[in-house]
Amino acid sequence: MSDLELVAQSAGAVCSACSVPAVVQWQRRTTDGTVPVFGCGRHAVSIDLAARVHAASCPAPDEALLPACGCTPEPVPETDLMALAQAPVFTWPT
Ligand SMILES: [Zn+2]
Ligand SMILES: [Zn+2]
C-alpha cells in the first residue's frame, strides 16, 4: 500500500465509481462552485486532467473513457487548486 493510498483512506474518500479507497481527486463544476470527485487506482483520470476543473456533465470516472474523462476541463493551473477549493466562485483571470 502506498503512502498516497494511506492518505486517501485516512480522509475517508472513496472512488466515485466503485467505492474503494480513492487515490486521486479532482474538481467538478456545479452551480454552487465545485465539488470534489474521487477515483481509485483503476478509476483515476490522468494527472493532467485531475489538475483541472471539470464540466458539471463530466462523466468521469467512467471506465469506458479512462484515462480521459469525457469533457473538456477548464485549464486551471495546479497552483490555483487550493484557492479554488475554498472559493465559492472562481473568476477567470483576464
Ligand atoms: Zn474505482
Ligand atoms: Zn472531465
Q: What does this 3D model show about the protein?
A:
This protein has one domain (3-79). Helices cover 20% and strands 17% of the residues. The chain is built from three helices and three strands. It has helices spanning 3-11, 47-50, 81-86, and strands spanning 24-30, 33-39, 53-54. The longest helix has 9 residues, at 3-11. One zinc ion binds at residues 54-55, 58, 60, 69-71, 73. The site of one zinc ion has 7 residues, from loops.
Give descriptors for this structure:
94 residues; three-stranded mixed sheet; binds zinc ion
What can be said about the biggest beta sheet?
Answer: 3 strands, mixed
Pick out the low-confidence regions: none
What is the gyration radius calculated from CA atoms? 13 Å
User: Please, how many domains?
Assistant: 1
Mean pLDDT: 83
Q: Tell me the strand percentage band.
A: 15-25%
Determine the structural class based on helices, strands and strand pairing: alpha+beta
Distance, first to last CA: 43 Å
Side by side, the strands of the main sheet go: 2-1-3
Question: What's the topology here?
Answer:
Layout: H1 3-11, E1 24-30, E2 33-39, H2 47-50, E3 53-54, H3 81-86
Parallel strand pairs: 1-3
Antiparallel strand pairs: 1-2
The chain binds zinc ion (ZN) (2 copies).
One zinc ion binds at residues 15, 17-18, 20, 40, 42-43.
